[in-house]
Amino acid sequence: MIVVTGATGQLGRLVIASLLKKVPASTIVAAVRNVEKAQDLAALGVQVRRADYTQPQSWDAALQGADKVLLISSSEIGQRAQQHKSVIDAAKRAGVKLLAYTSVLRADTSVLGLAGEHRETEVAIKASGLPAVILRNGWYTENYAMGIPTALALGAVYGCAGEGRIASAARADYAEAAAVALTSDDQAGKTYELAGDSAYTLSEFAAEIAKQSGKAINYVNLPEADYKQALLGAGLPEPLAALLADSDTGVSKGALFDDVHQLSKLIGRATTPLAEVVKAAL
To answer: 3-class SS at 116?
Structure first.
């Protein structure tokens, strides 16, 4: 039995879609905060169980009978380490044979502000003694692609990444990697540094949007504080604006560049090209 946490999230749904190609639906459990949002998964034969990162007591029932658990990191910045600890503790009580966790690229040395909670979680997993595989995911190309409508409206991509290179991959690529790790033998003790096969700068990203849309799109590099203010002005909540601005600064320092190709080796195919994600977004 494989339990996927946060199963109705963008990554969780894709992981379950990948798992359904590999194992019977009856062996998959979708652990979700809102059961109503998972009725489509239930219709596929997936077991749906209620579990909430903010309610530690909900995890014992959710993980009952679990052989493997994919802990997809919470989206609640500042609360994630403690929320993850609740799942780790419940997994230990349940006698889980493999815990997989979606961390961040080179979490142990990353300059990214968001890496802190991932480091704390990795430490908690190690301290638990649970057999575990760490999936250190690089950036999702969709993180930038979701800004394409704004770029088209403004005629520019804004950021503070300078000429830093981003080895991102599509969310579906990382989801497939998780499904492979969960259904392969001898994964305990492994740590994967996962990123896209090719890298790009935000100037090249803007050029790709311009090429496909036929509109003039430039990249405008801002100081981090100015970029954060622009994000706030666009209506983003403060924690998210701060995270995105900090991440762009991290890009300028090489935090999201990688050329080891562990992701494509794990999934057995090339990662999704930037052009394909841009095309889908347009």
So the answer is: helix
Q: What is the pLDDT of residues 243-257, one digit of tens each?
A: 899 999 999 999 999
- Judged by average pLDDT, the poorest of 100-104, 143-147, 196-200 is 143-147
CA distance 64 to 1: 10
Nearest to 124 by CA among 149, 156, 90: 90
pLDDT of residue 250: 97
CA distances to 110, 128, 168, 243 from 122, in Å:
13, 10, 22, 20
The alpha helices in the chain, defined as continuous H runs, are 10-19, 39-43, 59-62, 80-94, 115-128, 141-145, 148-154, 171-183, 202-213, 224-233, 238-252, 262-267, 274-281
* Structure token digits, residue 116: 């802190």
Per-residue pLDDT tens over the stretch 66-100:
999 999 999 888 889 999 999 999 999 999 999 99
- Spell out the domains of the chain, with CATH numbers in brackets: 2-137 (3.40.50.720), 138-170+194-258+269-282 (3.90.25.10)
Residue 137 has pLDDT above 90, yes or no: yes
User: Across the chain, how many H-helices and E-strands are there?
Assistant: 13, 9
Residues contacting 114, CB < 8 A, separation 6+: 77, 104, 243, 246, 247
What pLDDT, on the 0 to 100 scale, is given for residue 84? 97
**Looking up tokens 């979490």, which residue turns up?**
107
Which residue, 167, 239, 234, 152, is CA-closest to 198? 167
**Average of per-residue pLDDT values in the chain:** 96
CA-wise closest residue to 38 among 4, 84, 61: 4
Q: What are phi and psi of 260, to 5 degrees?
A: -90, -25
What gap in Å lies between CA 120 and CA 78, rounded to an integer? 11
Report the pLDDT value the prediction gives residue 78, as an integer from 0 to 100: 84
